Amino acid sequence: MTAVIVFITSCKKNVFLEQPAANPVAVFDEAWKIMDERYSFFVLKNVDWKEQYDAFRPEINDQMTEKELFKAISDMLKTVHDGHVSLISNFDTSVYTGFYIPYPRNFNLINIENLYLTDSAKHFGPIKFNIIDSVGYAYYHSFNDMISDSDIDSLVDALHFAKGLVLDVRANFGGNSNNVDKLCRRFIDQERIVYYERTKTGKGHGDFSDPRPHSLKPGGLPYKMPIVLLTNRTCYSACNDFASFMSTLPNVTIMGDQTGGGGGLPYEYILSNGWHLNYTGSITLSPSLQPIEQGVYPGQFVFVEPIDEIQGIDPIVDSAIHFLRK
Amino acid sequence: MHFTHRQPRLQLRQWPLLPILIILFFVNPLFSQDSLSAKRFYVGISVLSGNASVTDNYFSAIPFTGPAFGAAVRAGFTQRKSTHEISWWFNAAHTAAESMEGQTMDQFFFKGNYTYLYRITNPKRTAFILSAGAGADFLEASRTYNEFVNNYQSYEFIASANLVGLLGYEIKKGPKKLALTDQFRLPFLSVLKQPKLGGTEGTWQTGSWALVQSISNLLKLEKDFGTRHQLGMAYRLDYYTVKTLREISQAQHFLEINYAYRF
Fold first, then answer.
1. Mean pLDDT for chain A?
2. How far apart are CA A173 and CA A145, in angstroms?
3. Which of A181, B126, B176, B248 has the highest local Cβ count within 10 Å?
4. How many domains does chain B have?
5. In terms of pLDDT, which residue wins out, A220 or A209?
6. Domain holding B175: CATH number?
7. Where are the alpha helices (DSSP H) in A142-193?
8. Of A7, A16, A267, the CB nearest to B53
9. Which residues contact B20 (CB under 8 A, 6 or more apart)?
10. pTM of the model
């Protein structure tokens, strides 16, 4: 009997559930269908998804190579213009980059480090900080980098004699929303709604739940001095959520370029051939119930021209410091 | 989500295991004595070892499969023609997506049953056992996937009312007896709770055959030792599929070693 038990438990293959078909036609249809039933921005972006199927499906046949199939599905996915929609295989990754590639970068990290984050800069966890002309400058590169309460305490302590804070989240492609919450908590003095979320409730392109609020309570002594938040097109996803919320605070001004968007939660699905399909499965709304998928606009547009980069200056930071010193 | 073109089907490729089980049991020279009395309480315990396979279409149409281990306890009351039994069984499984390295899922599964069976055939006239009755099931399966973004947990609670049947055959050799029985359960009314899309908040649904389709079988060989002790082994097969937006199919099969004590 022991032998039988060992035999049963050593079975790696399942004996009841069938493996799905993984030929090119089946995989293409599966990718299209998952998007059709779960993707959240067809209506907002006015995308006719059936039209995309009709356009790309004739290219698909079971004789095509996996690289040809990958390109066909990737091209189809890019028609939704969404940086959260991607296709990942063991030989390539396809991500939509149209939300920032065609636009001026408005950010040069080398210039920032040469001008503002010099040797006197401090590091509060992932936040780099310096005092410039009695104004605090803080750069947070990625919401994937975990930030602790003590990091924020140190930041607020360092701002004790400063006239305000320039918080730079340019080139921040988002990450963990817990970091958004931690930062936001230090800028509020009462419970506030940070964003609303609508999730899919059915297969239809318009099947969504009612908006569900995500609110936060203050965490620690709030920082209430003026803040200038610097954004550009590469402020995406969680960074976009952060900018959306910060724009509602009375002591916050946003400068730079608009954010890249990414106003929805990305989810993941494994296609039958093992490729990973990432898709946006919800709609994030601002505290005023507006979709933020198309980005958050700054209160003051300021740009870094190519000549500025060559000269090693950053007019966006300079404008923010000037604004706070006034 | 519905993927009807890719609906998993039962494929019992390992039925040859069953004769092996039976042979292993028969080569044991011990045959128990016929000691069943008309009215008795009993309690029992089992250890389970087997496999779990899950296709959770919210994550992938690819089945996740792996070894599972668990235990079961039961308590019952028998009369000459009827049986009431309550049982609980649970297992933990560590599974992986087939043909994909590193894509794993851990599952905890619990199921509780109540069963009432009435024996239709007369034990004094025939060795065949045919019983019918009804039962209620409650199950919970909770899963944690690795390497998924935002959606990495799922679960379902299912409570069902079942039709229950039992087929069997008793082999008697003088005062000694060996019983081979197969109990199967078919739910006809179910209440289901599983998370909404894009979250872990649960939502309730109620339905009949169309909502939850399930087959649950327990094939047992049992022998009495003395008047109070009973040893047995069993093959348990539990399969269900949930036809919702988050369509799930799950199949588990186990070998069990059972012990029961009669009061």
1. 93
2. 11
3. B248
4. 1
5. A209
6. 2.40.128.90
7. 149-158, 177-185
8. A16
9. A4
10. 0.83
Which ipTM value was assigned to this complex? 0.82
pLDDT tens-place string over residues B185-226:
889 999 999 988 877 778 888 888 788 988 888 888 888 887
- Two structure tokens written together for B115: 């069963």
Average confidence (pLDDT) over A146-165: 95
Q: Are B246 and B160 in contact (CB under 8 A)?
A: no
pLDDT value of residue A13: 59
Does residue B84 surpass a pLDDT of 80?
Answer: yes
Instruction: Write out the residue range of the structural domain in which residue B184 sits.
Output: 4-262
Answer whether B67 touches A (CB < 8 Å): yes
What would the two tokens of residue A280 be? Answer: 């946006």
The pair of structure tokens assigned to A209 is 């739940």
Residue A196 carries which side chain, given as an amino acid letter?
Y
Q: Please, how many CA atoms are within 13 Å of residue A274, restricted to the half-sphere of its CB? A: 14
Pairing mode, strands A282-285 and A192-199: antiparallel
The full set of domains in chain A, from first to last, is 109-187+223-260+295-325 (3.90.226.10)
Task: Fill in the DSSP letter of residue A291.
Answer: B
Q: What is the pLDDT of residue B138?
A: 95
| Alpha-carbon gap: A315 to the closest alpha carbon of chain B (Å) | 37
Measured at the CA of B46, the angle between CA B45 and CA B48, to 5 degrees, comes to: 155
* Cα gap B220→B166, rounded to integer Å: 11
Least Cα separation, residue B152 to chain A (angstroms): 9
